[in-house]
Amino acid sequence: MKIVVIGNGMVGHKFCEKITQKLGTNTARIVIFGEETLPAYDRVHLSEYFAGKTAEDLSLAPVDWYASQGITLYLGDPVHIIDRQQKTVTSLKGITETYDFLVMATGSAAFVPNIAGTDKKGVFIYRTIEDLELMKSYAPRASRGTVIGGGLLGLEAAKALLDLGISRTSVIEFAPRLMPRQIDDKGSFVLQHKLQSLGLQVLTGKNTSAILGEETITGLAFSDGTSLDTDMLVISAGIKPRDELAAACGLETGPRGGIVVNDLLQSSDPSIYAVGECALYNGMIYGLVAPGYEMAEVAATHIIASYTEKEPVKSFTGFDMSTKLKLIGVDVASFGNPFTPPDQSHSIVMEDSVSGVYQRINVSQDGKYLLGGILIGNADAYNMLLQTCKNNIPLPANPADVLLGPRNGGAPSGAGVDALPDEAVICSCESISKAAICQAVEAGHETLDAVKKCTKAGTCCGGCTPMVKDLITATMKAQGKYIRNVVCEHFDYSRQELLDLIKVKSLRSFDEALDHYGHGEGCEVCKPVISSILASLWNDMILAKGNDTAQDSNDRYLANIQKGGTYSIVPRIPGGEITPEKLIVIGTIAKEYNLYTKITGGQRIDMFGAHLGDLPAIWEALIAAGFESGHAYGKALRTVKSCVGSTWCRFGLHDSVSYAIRIEERYRGLRAPHKIKSAVSGCIRECAEAQSKDFGIIATEKGWNLYVCGNGGSKPQHALLLAQDLDSETCIRYIDRFLMFYIKTADPLTRTATWLNKLEGGIDYLRNVVVNDSLGIAESLETEMQSLVDSYKCEWKEVVESPELRKKFSHFINAPEEKDPTVKFETLREQKKAADWK
Amino acid sequence: MSTISSTAITWFFACKTTDVPHNGGVCIKYRDEQIALFYFSRSNSWYATQNLCPHRRQMALSRGMTGTHQGEPKVACPFHKKTFSLADGRCISDESECSLTVYPVRLEDDRVYIGVQTGVEADMQVTVETL
């Protein structure tokens, strides 16, 4: 059997993959003609080419893949004649090949509207890597860019222009709204505002009448008499099926283009198939990759069936055009039927113009089933909603819950992955069902990578990976497998298990822990974990007992490494209170060692740009002036921030500074699974921002309110109230219990907020443990904390006083006096800064 | 290490074995160059690589944490935790990252020697100049 494939795009490539998978290599002779000079690449992620991906990153298979499959690949050589009588094709360069089956995967071309001047310099279409390269070489000349077309591809093209550094980019759409085929007016309005806030100008309802400029484009004129200056134009106004070859050999084509196919993807000549964007099925062109892949599968199955004279097992029945993507950082998704008419359905709409979120779901008239919907600004629920829609899963009694979550404090309703039927398609790009993924997990593919390799799920757009992960976990749980949360390849234990084991055996070093419970030599993951556990249990000097090289690299040098390889130094300034004398000392030292100084977010002073070899001398001077380590380099207590409180403030209820100092001095040096921050506010005005801290304290008329598990950082989260109106002693006892419970049970590098989010029972459970002592461990938690408090020593003081430890702070072991000569500084606002890295 | 032809190697004295911490690294100055030297006490093995991490061109590898990846010795750069094989210098955590130059190490009693090639030195000169 001989198959000729015309077109080496994503769908043409998928067809070859399917046919060789099903037949084995060398059963059929396969010849591909491709017009582009590059082998098939990922057109879906084309705009990432500007975000730094190379043509190679985007390619779907290396050139030698074709040879290894016995496939002949002619690139840069389009077919220009099909002779259906002789069953031959002839390429532009004169190669003639015969065929038994011919597969047209010619794809589409950019649709260029009939506007005068599209041949001017600076006008581009957005379709191939070659187009992108042309745009890239032209872009440095342009400061303003414009895209015609506000659909999916148009917005992708706009992102490409932004990535090319053209910050003044506009999108022109003929229709009154963006993405007219996928989303409704309101959704489009929200999307438009969101994109405008990100710097993209959006003009809708504009009909471009002419491209201005002599040889080179200078602007656009619109039919309403207005115009727009631009240096560069990208046309991305839709696609046009490449059917000219099919039409020339007499195959039936649609009135507006496209090769007419039946549900086996056969054209009007049964030995010629058409797949992908050139195929017209049931009056429709499918301009997405997933239906194209499905067509490739059906055509491959049918060709094999006709060759082996078996009944075909599959036919094409149309395809769901649901889609989810991130456009310039904004989630946009539409699924099922996004535009159901009001007489056949109800719509539930959630619009939040503050955060730029618009969500609409269409529900059947009886309120039982989900028909489709639109998600703008936040499409986290997409996968679950799509599955609910596709599999006709009944909605909760109050359908709005699927958008808004349960209210009135009810338990989360609705369907997890468990509720999905086996045939639910999880990865629509590769059409992989829930059953296929679960079977792969049952066969021992228990990681995301393994499942991806085995099933191909999640390898195309990647949108389904969260759901694949959930399925892996759910399947393993269903098998009764305890999902072991192990530290790394060297320790088959969780952090909590290791802490208990190390405590029971009284192990004091990384080496001992590795001897007893690990294998191999350890790594950059388990070394800091064990070191942190040892510090939380015994509070030994961290650089002692040969433990120095088991510390994370900042802990090893008791300082924070910064650009260029110098270090920054943060002395502890408890509660942010400092005397003028101490301020002068910091200034003097910073001047002597030429350090850049900056006030930190935690009310301390950071000194940057210290050479490794200078650290001990700098600390000697700091310690002599009464400073001690601030542990800014460690996963440890950082600061206890405070407002000025009742000593000065006319609103202050209690002395927040004194209490903050007391707390900071109590927990200084305490090592934990992650850094810990705290704050004390003297009244409800909350100037110390205590509710954004791991533990925060706010003065009340009657005492202190204790809040826990807040977080700033990348995922800010407010702290929750643990207990109210506490006296100072009780408050500290609760903090002892809370911190020790966190230290003993959290996973590595988990802040208190994330720890609480994962804790079954949440804040109520935590309150029971800490306040009501439901586990009966309160006393031991307090005792353990007290022993850590009692054994605190300033680790920098110990280094400064030990000639042996001081020796470890040099750049060259064989030239200890010399500093790293590659360190370079520049000047900015009369201070130094690290030289930029490449 | 085997890729370096033994005929062209110059051995220079780096430091004493006792200068190097167990399961960690130090930085050796050789002429105008910087070489990271690592000692794995469990297997009693020595490794040497360029000190420059190719990711952000920082002189930092000697301060990185050492360990193994499926039995293969490695070091993690302190800056962004890219990990490199000490056996062949390739980046384990990111296939697209450049590899490290690795050097042979020889012991004579408590003296540690590192082998450099004349050609290698010439390359390193270029690397340092482009910083």
From TrEMBL, chain A:
Domain of life from the UniProt record: Bacteria
Annotated positions binding [4Fe-4S] cluster: C643, C649, C683, C687
Residue ranges annotated for the FAD/NAD(P)-binding domain, each copy included: 1-299
Positions of the BFD-like [2Fe-2S]-binding domain: 425-472
Cofactor note text: Binds 1 [4Fe-4S] cluster per subunit.
UniProt pathway annotation: Nitrogen metabolism; nitrate reduction (assimilation)
Domain Nitrite/Sulfite reductase ferredoxin-like: 562-624
Cofactor: [4Fe-4S] cluster; FAD; [2Fe-2S] cluster; siroheme
One Gene Ontology biological process: nitrate assimilation
Domain Nitrite/sulphite reductase 4Fe-4S: 634-770
Domain called NADH-rubredoxin oxidoreductase C-terminal: residue spans: 322-391
GO function term, MF aspect, one: 2 iron, 2 sulfur cluster binding
Claim: Heme is one of the keywords in the record: yes
Residues the record lists as binding siroheme: C687
Family stated for the protein in its record: Belongs to the nitrite and sulfite reductase 4Fe-4S domain family.
Protein name in the entry: Nitrite reductase large subunit
Phylogenetic placement of the source organism: Bacteria, Pseudomonadati, Bacteroidota, Chitinophagia, Chitinophagales
UniProtKB/TrEMBL annotation, chain B:
SUPFAM superfamilies reported in the protein's UniProt record: ISP domain (SSF50022)
Family matches, as Pfam families: Rieske_2 (PF13806)
BP terms from Gene Ontology: nitrate assimilation
Keyword ATP-binding: no
Gene3D superfamilies: Rieske [2Fe-2S] iron-sulphur domain
Keyword Transmembrane helix: no
Domain Rieske residue range list: 12-114
Cross-referenced InterPro entries: NasD-like, Rieske-like_NirD, Rieske_2Fe-2S, Rieske_2Fe-2S_sf
Keywords for the protein's UniProt record, in alphabetical order: 2Fe-2S, Heme, Iron, Iron-sulfur, Metal-binding, Nitrate assimilation, Oxidoreductase
GO molecular function: 2 iron, 2 sulfur cluster binding; metal ion binding; nitrite reductase [NAD(P)H] activity
Transmembrane regions: none
Xref: PANTHER family: NITRITE REDUCTASE (NADH) LARGE SUBUNIT
Record-given protein name: Nitrite reductase small subunit NirD
